[in-house]
């Protein structure tokens, strides 16, 4: 069995891979021009090794079944990839067949809700039926949204109390504008749902590129960690997207310095233990 491997406690819970083409990655605009090249496990390996990361979770970047299959092929060939969060057509009545095509190789699913023109996409009946298919297969779901979607996300999560969710990138708070509300209050409300976890990921690209500092990120990190607690919080680099504005080591250091006052056990959980538990990496290997 491949795709979800036993890992040491140190896991980066959010990494992307791609073979770049302008047609398939139109979201990589001029502001992200540094990302217009291939990013493969061999590129990530040195970055993770430099901060003593033993493995990663690969997350989809395109909404195609072919990409999901490709990520799983990478996982089969790379000891670095502990799990894959792929994409399936959750609105398709035959989504169960798509999921069963991948079987236990898949650890989770993500849909790029932030790109949907309908801000109420999360309330669609067909989409929610697709999410129901995840629970029976013990698959997690990554929530990718903007702050304006948080009220809809709360209602969405309430429809699935037995489903495991993780919020990517803190819902992309308005760091450039240095605003906290209404993002903060809505994040706190979402955190009251015990089946929702949080990734400390994707923040550097939400900050002013000229002011990507620990001080700029700290208010958002503090509020998020207070809301979810270290028991439901995962580290994710958002590599290679993060490298458009900061190095991998800087992203890691921002989070490592921030959690340095926590207990050793809490830091270990954030930097891998929680990812292994949330995505059930060991269980999916039958160990």
Major beta sheet, specifics? 8 strands, parallel
SS summary, helix count: 10
Strand percentage? 5-15%
Beta-strand segment tally: 8
Strand order of the main beta sheet, please? 1-2-3-4-5-6-7-8
Q: What letter string, H or E per element, gives the SSE order?
A: EHEHEHEHEHEHEHEHHH
- Taking all Cα atoms into account, the compactness measure Rg is 17 Å
General form: globular
- Which bin fits the share of residues in helices? 25-40%
Unreliable segments (pLDDT under 50, ≥5 consecutive)?
A: none
Secondary structure category: alpha/beta
Question: Mean of the pLDDT scores?
Answer: 94
Terminal residue distance: 12 Å
Descriptive account of the structure:
The chain has 10 helices and 8 strands. It is of the alpha/beta class. The protein has an 8-stranded parallel sheet with strand order 1-2-3-4-5-6-7-8. Helix 7 links the parallel strand 7 and strand 8. Helix 5 runs parallel beside helix 6. The longest helix is centred in the C-terminal third of the chain and has 15 residues. It is globular, with a radius of gyration of 17 Å. 43% of the residues are buried. The model has no long low-confidence stretch (mean pLDDT 94).
